[in-house]
Structures are given as structure tokens and as C-alpha cells.
Design brief:
The chain is an alpha/beta fold. The chain is built from seven helices and twelve strands. The strands form two sheets. Strands 3-2-1-4-5-12 form a six-stranded parallel β-sheet, with helices on both faces. Strands 6-11-10-7-8-9 form a six-stranded parallel β-sheet, sandwiched between helices. β1 (4-7), α1 (11-17) and β2 form a beta-alpha-beta unit. α2 (49-59) crosses α3 (74-87) and α5 (172-182) packs across α6 (199-207). Its EC number is 1.3.1.106, 1.3.1.54.
């Protein structure tokens, strides 16, 4: 039997983890909620870079690594590929397709935080949907701006920012209500892809709002790449599944 290490932390990763049997391992970096409905083992915490991960693969007799981390978790993905090369273990990746601009969209592409701040200078009430990174910059908010920062976990508001704790998936009606209440004039987003957080882009389109979009990092090549959960699960050996005898 091939023992699987699943690198996760996303909703898609949880869908895969729920299908894995008890011999396999679901790995989380430590942020977010740890699922309690899995049959596979759950490991929380880092490995110590690619070298530490390579040692773990050898010591735990891992025969396949599946990278189902966030599309912007470039360091983790690079570590996984390097560790698999050293340990001579195949590496698969789930890489959901990026969103594509549609008619009526006003996307302003940026490469990093500095570019993002430059693009944001003309606006007053941005909605940040980047995760935790804006929290490190709350003391840098210009006096004419008020930020809303949506993150997974609660954090205190400041005089110039509202920290909104919320977890997707987000509905179209819910996003419409939020935008109407808060009066955003721009959305700041990663191009994460998938349906869970796409509604904000549709509401921005409806309201004629620009979207400052952080480009995806370039990720390393893997042995097999999948665009969807179903295709990846179909490719797994039957004994990997939770309902198989292990």
C-alpha cells in the first residue's frame, strides 16, 4: 500500500482528506480550524523546510505527496517538490484554475505588496481579501482610507480598520449585502480561483468597482497536476480511500 501525505489547509484539501483512510496523513500548517471528521491521521505544524520534510517522508514511509495547499503558498509547494526529489517520492498537486476577467471587469494586476499599495492610493474604502498579510500593515493606513480586512479568525478593530472574521463559501446575496452596507470602492484580492470566494468578483462587476488583483506566484513542476478534486480522487489507488480495507 502507498502511504499518502496530503499537504492541505484549503477547502479542496479537506474534501480529499475526507476520502483518505487511516493509514494516510493530512498535514496542516497550524492556521485555521482542524477538522474533526476525518479517518486519516492529522498532523499540525511545519516540517522544517524541504530538508525536514524529506526526513519525514523517509521516516514515515510516505510513498506519495499530494500538494493541495493554497495557490499562493509558493514556499510550501517548492519545499514539497524538493523534498520529494530528495526522497525519491512522487509529488502530485491540485492546482485549481485561476479566475479570468469577464466583460465589465476592471482588474488592476500587481505583483507584490508595494505594487498593491501604489494601486490603492486613489481609493478610500477598500475590502481586503488577501488573508492575514494586511494585519501587519494596519499602522500604515493613510488618514484618508478606512480598511475592511476579511480574515478567518477574529482580531480587534482599529481606528482606521475593521477586521471582519468570516469563512467561505460566500454567497452572492451575502456579498451584495456586505458591499451595500460598507460602501467599498475597491476590492483587493488574490486570484485564488474556485467558487467559494468568487461572489465578491461578481458583486464588484455589478457595482462597477475595480479589483486590485495580486498575481499568482509561479509554482514548480510536479509529477502530476490536477485541476479538480474529482479527477485527483479518481487517480488515487483504491486502497487509499477511507471505505477500503486497510
Amino acid at each position: 500500500m502507498t502511504r499518502i501525505l496530503l499537504l492541505g489547509g484549503t477547502g479542496d484539501a479537506q474534501k480529499i482528506a475526507r476520502q483518505l483512510g487511516r493509514a494516510h496523513v493530512y498535514s496542516l500548517a497550524g492556521l485555521g480550524k482542524v477538522p474533526d471528521d476525518l479517518k486519516c491521521a492529522v498532523r499540525v505544524g511545519g516540517f522544517g523546510g524541504s530538508e525536514g520534510l524529506a526526513r519525514y517522508l523517509a521516516s514515515e514511509a510516505i510513498g506519495l505527496v499530494i500538494d493541495a495547499t493554497h495557490p499562493y503558498a509558493a514556499r510550501i509547494s517548492a519545499n514539497a517538490v524538493e523534498a520529494c526529489r530528495v526522497a525519491k517520492v512522487p509529488c502530485w498537486a491540485l492546482r485549481r484554475p485561476a479566475w479570468q476577467p469577464q466583460a465589465g471587469d476592471d482588474w488592476r494586476m500587481v505583483d507584490d505588496w508595494n505594487g498593491l499599495i501604489d494601486a490603492l492610493a486613489a481609493f478610500r474604502r477598500p475590502l481586503f481579501t488577501l488573508g492575514r498579510e494586511p494585519l501587519a500593515h494596519l499602522d500604515e493606513i493613510p488618514p484618508y482610507q478606512f480598511w475592511t480586512v476579511r480574515v478567518l479568525d477574529s482580531h480587534p478593530d482599529t481606528a482606521r480598520a475593521r477586521i471582519l472574521a468570516a469563512r467561505g463559501p460566500f454567497t452572492l446575496d451575502g456579498e451584495r449585502a456586505l458591499f451595500a452596507l460598507q460602501g467599498f470602492d475597491v476590492v483587493v484580492s488574490k486570484n485564488s480561483g474556485g467558487a467559494a470566494t468568487e461572489a465578491k468578483l461578481e458583486v464588484a462587476r455589478e457595482r462597477g468597482l475595480p479589483v486590485i488583483m495580486l498575481r499568482r506566484p509561479v509554482l514548480p513542476d510536479v509529477d502530476r497536476e490536477f485541476a479538480g478534486v474529482a479527477d485527483l480522487l479518481d487517480a488515487l489507488p483504491p486502497q487509499a480511500h477511507a471505505d477500503s480495507a486497510q
